[in-house]
Amino acid sequence: MARAAVSGRLSWRVARLAEVREETPSARTLVLDVPGWPGHLAGQHADVRLTAEDGYTAQRSYSLSAPADGERIELTVQRVEDGEVSPYLIDVFSVGDRVEVRGPIGGWFVWRPADPAPVLLIAGGSGIVPLMAMIRARRAAGSRAPFRLLYSVRTPKELYYGDELRAAALSGVEVSFVYTREVPDGFSRAPGRIGVADVNTSGWPASFEPACFVCGPTGFVEAVSDMLLALGHDARRVKTERFGPTG
């Protein structure tokens, strides 16, 4: 559904790129300073708009990858080769450059640190981005809510936030990986798509009534949602966010 720009929370703001972190060969995290940013919840996203010299504009939505931090936000962007926005943000956009942002957007696919219920996060590829914001928000708030993450990715080199996720166990987050095409040395599971056994083993029992967040490509999200329902999870506690091939 199209959203019109309105005053206040959804007005466009001029942001400045303060820092860049390389995540994978095709993805980078953009740390932006946004004067007047109103804050956000883990799981929300922001719109980014580029304007060419001739006045042509293009905009895309990107998930926020870190919890609220004053007027600073983080977006992790993956390059889409035929995209209008992501190639610029990956290959051209430099520290000190400016871009327009609008948000935060979304109020359903969010996690609040005050919620003590167990949380199950299931990500496919770059679907890890809003879920990483939830993991970071948990740590920043000192929450003791039980967290489990099941992360499906094609190869080890395409893993986002690898070092941080491997260290997440130190803060009480249980992390499991599924590699669909190539596995790291010594990994016990053969390459393959995520299945019911993975969700059952790495997730919470339905009787625990966890809050489930699933994010990734449409086919992945639909398949995982069906698995959760088949395992007895309450559909009202399964929240999904999906993305398509836009850049």
Textual characterization of the structure:
18% of the residues lie in helices and 33% in strands. The chain is built from five helices and eleven strands; from the N terminus they run E-E-E-E-E-H-E-E-H-E-H-E-H-E-H-E. The chain has helices at 86-91, 128-141, 162-166, 196-202, 218-230; strands spanning 13-24, 27-33, 45-51, 57-63, 72-78, 98-105, 119-124, 147-153, 173-179, 211-217, 238-243. It has a six-stranded antiparallel sheet. The longest helix is centred in the middle third of the chain and has 14 residues, at 128-141. The chain is globular. Mean pLDDT is 92; it is low at 1-8.
Record the SSE blueprint.
Layout (H helix, E strand, L loop, with lengths): L12 E12 L2 E7 L11 E7 L5 E7 L8 E7 L7 H6 L6 E8 L13 E6 L3 H14 L5 E7 L8 H5 L6 E7 L16 H7 L8 E7 H13 L7 E6 L4
Parallel strand pairs: 7-8, 7-10, 8-9, 10-11
Antiparallel strand pairs: 1-2, 1-6, 2-5, 3-4, 3-6
